[in-house]
């Protein structure tokens, strides 16, 4: 169980979004909120503001930390930084 909440900004049929959710499930993250921005300009703008201009999905936040996209999160996991950031021991 992760202690730090995860927010994923996503769109339907996004393969990187699917991979991000699968990786989070694989490591045991269960405090995950998915925000579908498809067709919602206000949510898209919110995502851009929070991610300092990110225009692609997913945009992933763990607690107050902007991780980036799936590739960034996968690299963080390979380097051993994802589980501590999630609060999983």
Layout of strands and helices, then pairs:
Blueprint: E1 6-10, H1 15-26, E2 32-36, H2 41-50, E3 59-62, E4 65-68, H3 70-78, H4 82-86
Helix pairs in contact: 1-3
In CATH, the homologous superfamily goes by the name Glutaredoxin
- Would you tell me the structural class of the helices and strands? alpha+beta
- Name the poorly predicted regions: none
Note the quaternary state here: single chain
Helix content, binned percent: 40-55%
Would you give an account of this structure?
Helix 1 runs parallel beside helix 3 (70-78). This protein has four helices and four strands; from the N terminus they run E-H-E-H-E-E-H-H. Strands 2-1-3-4 form a four-stranded mixed beta sheet, sandwiched between helices. It has a single domain, classed as Glutaredoxin (3-Layer(aba) Sandwich). The chain is α+β, with helices and mostly antiparallel strands. The mean pLDDT is 96. It has helices spanning 15-26, 41-50, 70-78, 82-86, and strands at residues 6-10, 32-36, 59-62, 65-68. It starts with 5 loop residues before the first strand and ends with a helix.
Provide a concise account of the structure shown.
This protein has one domain (about 5-85): Glutaredoxin. The chain contains four helices and four strands, in the order βαβαββαα.
What tags apply to this protein structure?
89 residues, Glutaredoxin, four-stranded mixed beta sheet, 4 helices, 20% strand
């Amino acid at each position: 169980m992760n202690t730090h909440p995860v927010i994923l900004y996503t769109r339907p049929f996004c393969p990187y979004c699917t991979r991000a959710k699968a990786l989070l499930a694989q490591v045991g993250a269960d405090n995950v909120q998915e925000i579908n921005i498809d067709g919602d300009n206000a949510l898209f703008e919110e995502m851009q503001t929070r991610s300092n201009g990110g225009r692609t999905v997913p945009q992933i936040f763990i607690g107050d930390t902007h991780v980036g996209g799936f590739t960034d999160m996968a690299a963080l996991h390979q380097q051993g930084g994802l589980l501590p950031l999630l609060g999983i021991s």
